Amino acid sequence: MGNFANTILNWYARHGRQLPWRETHDPYAVWLSEIILQQTRIQQGWAYWERFMQRWPHVELLADATEDEVLRCWQGLGYYSRARNLHKAAQQIKALGHFPDTLESIRALKGVGDYTAAAIGSIAFGLDAAAVDGNVYRVLARHFAIDTPIDTTLGKKTFAALAESLLPKGQAGTFNQGMMDFGATVCTPQSPRCGECPLSGSCEALSTATIDQLPAKKKKLTPKQRHLIYIYLRHEGQTALHRRGEGDIWQGLWEPLLVEDGPMPTLDGQVSLRRQGVRHVLTHQVLTADFYVANLNSRPQLPEGYLWTDEQKLDNYALPRLVELLFERYL
What we know:
alpha+beta; 16% strand; globular; 13 helices; 3-stranded antiparallel sheet
C-alpha cells in the first residue's frame, strides 16, 4: 500500500498540473475551485474561477452579492444549483465568522459533499481525509481490479475505505491532488496511457486485460426527452421574460415565453419561425427547442410572473445556455 502512495506522490511532484488555486492554501480559493470543477473541465472552469476571484476576492463579498449577480457570473457553466449553493454557503461562512476547518463543519456547507469536504480539508487545512472522485474511482478500480459498481452504496463504501487505507498521513492534500491529476492525465477513461504509467507493473486490470471494463457501474438511466417551444415577444423595443421556479432545471434563471406540452398561444402580430429543432443535452434530459419570434401589435395577457424589459438590457439577466444559444444565433 505504501508503494502505491509513494508512486503517486513522486509522479505528482514531476507531472502535477500547475493551477492557480494550488498556489495558495486560502480555503476560499480552494473551495471555489472545487465547486466550479464539480461538473466542469479545468480548461473551462479556470476562467470562471479567475472571474469570481477578481469580482469577489473574499468570501464576505460573495456573501453580500445578490443571487442574480452570482447566477449571471456563473452563466455558461451549467448545473446552476452549484451557483445557488455557492452563494448560500458563502452566507453561512460569513455568519460563522471564519471558514470552517473540520470535516464535519466543512461538510455542513451548502452544496458540499464528502468528496468536496475531504478535498478542501486536506488541501487547505492539512486534514487526513481521502477525496474520492471519478478519477480516483477509476484509478483504484483498475489498479486493484475491483468490479463492485461505483454507483452503489457498497461500492462507495469499498472505495472510500480503500482510499483511506492508502492515504499517506500528513500528505493527504498532495496525495489527493496527485490522484486527481493521475486519473485525469494518465489513467483516463478512454485510451489510458498504460505505457507511461508508473503503476503498470502492479496494475491488475492491465495484467488481466480488463481496463475497458473498469470502473463498473450498475445504473443506466434513459434520458428524459422534452420538447420546448420558446416565443420571443417583441413590442416597442421590449421583450417578456420570466424566472424559472423550483423543482425543475435552471432554477432561478430567466427565459422568454415558454410553451411545453401545450398549444401555441394566439398572438396579435407577426410570428415567424427562426429555427426549429435545436438539441440540447443535459445529464438526464435531452431537450429539443423550437424558437419563434413574435412582433406584436399589442402586449398579450401573459401568465403570472412575466415582466417586460428593454431588449438592450438582456445582458442583465442570467439565461440558461440553451436560451443563450438561441439568442446568439437567431436574434
